[in-house]
Amino acid sequence: MNQPKIELFDNPRPGREYTISIHCPEFTSLCPKTGQPDFGEIVIDYCPDKSCIELKSLKLYMQSFRNKGIFYEALTNQILDELVSVCKPAKMKVTSKFTPRGGITTEVTSQYP
After folding, report:
1. SS in 3 state form for 24-78?
2. Using one digit for the tens of pLDDT, what is the confidence trace for 44-75?
3. Which residues are the active-site residues?
4. Looking at the whole model, is its pTM more than 0.70?
């Protein structure tokens, strides 16, 4: 399956530093070891430069991970790398917070720059 294209729109306040926080509380991917679903929340905090991320396209992008076997650490960094590549923010932080598995929770944070 091809990765959906992340669409952008012009930042309505270029030159002003402000933060956009996007929460994706129904995120799912697959454990690459067991094939079982992983459930969690992805939080994207970014300071836009020239462009902002359009939310419907982001939703479709996030849903593309539903059937992908990927470790949390790789997932978090892949999302950061791909979003930074597309929207070129001043700064961005992606945090993945996964529900307990075997009594252990995992939270991974990756930042740009």
Report:
1. EEEEEEECCCCCCEEEEEEEEEEECCCEEECHHHHHHHHHCCCCCECCHHHHHHH
2. 999 999 999 999 999 999 999 999 999 999 99
3. 31, 38
4. yes
